[in-house]
């Protein structure tokens, strides 16, 4: 029997949404075992959380430096193999760089870094390390998103004409309108988040997803961002016009002040033969639209779906799967790569996606600051 991949985690303690998401996802296909980490910079909270989730505490470290130093003392057969970085944005780069330089595989939350220059440095470090690097654009793991990708790749939509992504949330409303709250949350602090809040947090999901499903590269952007208050340095809403290769055009609309919205992420791609539409809040439904024909609804688990889609489906048709399953599929793909097993390149986003995502963030902000002009990525 193959041994499980030894997984370490940085951040994600307490009531962190992404923490439980990553932990559950890593267990789904029985590929990983969490053996250690640093869940919180406060030692009492760190060790207390490890006890809470039932982890042995002998490899719960006081800080990141201790984790790396102590793990490197262990033999290869015991050392942590891959580490998930779930910390605030500003820690992604220094942590990922040191991990790569010391031979660890890395799974990193998005945005990958806080600057495009940092992203390029990580790309060089990965080439030297020759390890696996995945970035968790989580929604690419949904079976029907993978089906969408394969249908477009196979030409079922014909020549692509337009791409469209909308990602609306309302969670920042209670924060942005309170001067004290908006000045103390890390999401709105450039030193911890980078130069963008909304575009960096959810706009990159939309950017990556459109490139993932359509197979087209976004080449230039024209952006109009909203900061709402003069003392707020971070965008919390924005619209971005897109120009892609092959003369394809599109739009990304993002907001974290869309009052009442929860996590409304909608992807639409239109070709000259048909269109496809997918909604994250109803992820089991992929809508196929063709001129002169009734609307078709494709669902996961059926034999008509692609091999990539079926590989990411664990349950029979009619049994809902969701965000945990989507992240689990990414972890599954990373496990295949670490174990040197054959895998589809659509199974997990790589450092290339992370670098392009950082370029997108910076060019969107540049476009807005220069008076809403077209800027090349």
Automatic annotation (TrEMBL):
Name recorded for this polypeptide: Gfo/Idh/MocA family oxidoreductase
Domain of life: Bacteria
Domain Gfo/Idh/MocA-like oxidoreductase N-terminal: 7-135
Domain GFO/IDH/MocA-like oxidoreductase: 145-276
Pfam families, per database record: GFO_IDH_MocA (PF01408), GFO_IDH_MocA_C3 (PF22725)
């Amino acid at each position: 029997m193959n041994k499980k991949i030894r997984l370490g985690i940085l951040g994600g303690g307490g009531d962190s949404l992404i923490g439980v998401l990553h932990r559950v996802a890593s267990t789904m296909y029985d590929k990983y075992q969490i053996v250690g980490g640093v869940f919180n910079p406060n030692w009492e909270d760190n060790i207390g959380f490890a006890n809470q989730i039932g982890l042995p505490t002998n490899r719960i470290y006081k800080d990141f430096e201790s984790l790396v130093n102590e793990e490197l003392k262990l033999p290869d057969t015991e050392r942590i193999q891959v580490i998930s970085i779930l910390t605030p944005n500003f820690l992604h780069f220094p942590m990922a760089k040191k991990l790569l330089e010391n031979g660890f595989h890395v799974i990193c939350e998005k945005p990958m870094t806080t600057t495009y220059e940092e992203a390029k440095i990580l790309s060089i470090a990965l080439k030297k390390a020759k390890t696996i690097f995945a970035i968790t654009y989580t929604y690419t793991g949904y079976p029907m998103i993978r089906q969408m990708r394969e249908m477009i790749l196979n030409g079922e939509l014909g020549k692509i004409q337009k791409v469209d992504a909308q990602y609306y949330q309302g969670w920042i409303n209670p924060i942005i309108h309170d001067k004290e709250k908006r000045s103390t949350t890390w999401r709105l602090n450039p030193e911890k988040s980078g130069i963008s809040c909304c575009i960096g947090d959810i706009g990159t999901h939309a950017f990556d997803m459109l490139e993932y499903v359509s197979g087209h590269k976004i080449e230039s952007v024209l952006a109009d961002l909203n900061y709402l208050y003069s003392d707020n340095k971070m965008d919390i809403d924005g619209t971005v016009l897109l120009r892609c290769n092959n003369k394809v055009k599109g739009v990304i609309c993002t907001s974290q002040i869309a009052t009442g919205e929860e996590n409304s992420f909608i992807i639409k791609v239109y070709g000259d033969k048909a269109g496809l539409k997918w909604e994250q809040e109803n992820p089991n439904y992929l809508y196929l639209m063709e001129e002169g024909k009734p609307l078709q609804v494709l669902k996961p688990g059926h034999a008509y779906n692609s091999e990539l889609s079926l590989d990411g489906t664990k349950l029979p048709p009619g049994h809902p799967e969701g965000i945990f399953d989507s992240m689990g599929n990414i972890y599954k793909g990373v496990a295949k790569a670490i174990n040197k097993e054959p895998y589809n390149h659509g199974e997990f986003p790589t450092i290339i996606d992370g670098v392009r995502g950082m370029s997108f963030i910076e060019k969107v902000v540049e476009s807005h600051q220069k008076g809403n002009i077209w800027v090349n990525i």
